[in-house]
Amino acid sequence: MKSRQTHTVCLEQAGRLMTAAFRPAVQRPQLLRRAARPLSVPSPIQSRPRAGRRGYASVPAADLLFGQPVHETHPHILKAGELTPGITAQEYYDRRCALAAALPPDSAAVLQSDFFYLTGFNEPEAVAVLRKTGPDPGDCVFALLVRPKDPRAEQWSGPWSGVDAARDVFNADEAGDIASIGSLLPSLLRGVRTVYTNSEVDVPPPPPPPSSALAAARSIKALLDEAGVARVHPLAPVVAQQRSIKSTAEIANMRQAGRLSGRALTNAMRRPWTREKDLAAFLDYAFHQDGGDGIAYVPVVAGGPRGRLVHYVLNNAALNADEMVLVDAGGEYGTYITDITRTWPIGGRFSAAQRDLYEAVLRVQRSSVSLCRAAGGLSLDQIHRITSDGLRKELTKLGFSFGYSFSGSSDGLSELFPHHVGHYVGLDVHDTPSVPRHIALQVGHCVTIEPGIYVPDDARWPDHFRGMAIRIEDSICVGDENPHILTTEAVKEVVDIEALREV
């Protein structure tokens, strides 16, 4: 086994002295290459220990502890220069610059929601401030307020990164103790006229005795009032537009999530499951394989008529060989998720009625996926209407008759297909919900296409289809002329599904 190289370092300064090793290679303007300037309130900033007080020891580089993986401690997860899998420090810097460029002069963003997207910092009890300082790209100052290192607390709760790492690893220009936000935030916002933020952020309680500043200021809103900020606007709409267009690196992570998840679902189809929970457990395990980060959301594993419950997550019933199982499940890779739904016969072969209804939904799904291209100029809402028309035509061929519905609409299709055809996907399963679905799809948008038919046990519908539930869903990246399907490894053609049991 190859031995680890050790470095003689000051225990009190281990994080700072490893700066060269841990700082990602970011080509930044001079503004961000300067030495970190102390904030105007000196007490919360860790001062450098005097040389005469240093205590030296031999500390392996890989033994420095952080609250999340970094390249030096987790080279099997992160490449040099990456803050999170597949996403470099440069990309996080570019995201902050893009946000600052979208803000008006004399403004700042106080980040709590969308915090990770703009920083790569994935720890609780932290607040970031992005202050616009001029009109040019890169004219911004990034401050990060985090928990300071506390060896005794970390012995119980696990490590966190600390103030030095906020500068040296996460490239904050200014860093401080989150417990001192009551005094630091007004200082950071001096001269700022407009602040963009999201929901109120609770200030962590101070150690006893509480300072008067923290006792009085229990939320970001209260602190902004104290700082005399004239205008406060929601941040989410500004960030959401930027976040909805995925970069090449983001798409690569989503493709890998789709690849791993699709293989897991295809492997699940090979087995004759008898219980929903066994199938759910298999997927949970499979989504951790080959570098996956695990399950992205609570899955739907619904046998037979339970598939009609769109968000059924009990996953505890028996599976019958003559029924189908509807599985809505996806894994995560590099913090990005995929969203897939497949429906297949538990016994391995479709009955005639199951095949007819399944192929009707599949034809519509394939057609709707083909519309996810920027050149077509369509929105998700328009694709939804086209999908609804396609389902109505396919079902009519199968003997469904549409007229007045119990819900009061003029068409019963909304009872068979009660949800939207798709949503945006990315860091979250329902990503950027503030981005409307009526805007035209653009290159880099990532969406789902998931038509479904859920037939109740109702005399209005053909008897041999009653109780069936079929949904087919893929995650799609919008291209200019063609869609890019991120989840192709999950088979969906009838012949391919049935062939899995014949091998």
UniProtKB/TrEMBL annotation:
Gene3D superfamilies: Creatinase/methionine aminopeptidase superfamily (3.90.230.10), Creatinase/prolidase N-terminal domain (3.40.350.10)
Signal peptide interval: none
Family: Belongs to the peptidase M24B family.
InterPro entries: Aminopep_P_N, Creatin/AminoP/Spt16_N, Creatinase/aminopeptidase-like, Pept_M24, X-Pro_dipept-like
Protein known as: Xaa-Pro aminopeptidase
Database matches in SMART domains: AMP_N
Keyword Coiled coil assigned: no
GO molecular function, one term: metalloaminopeptidase activity
Alphabetized Pfam families for the sequence: AMP_N, Peptidase_M24
Cofactor needs: Mn(2+)
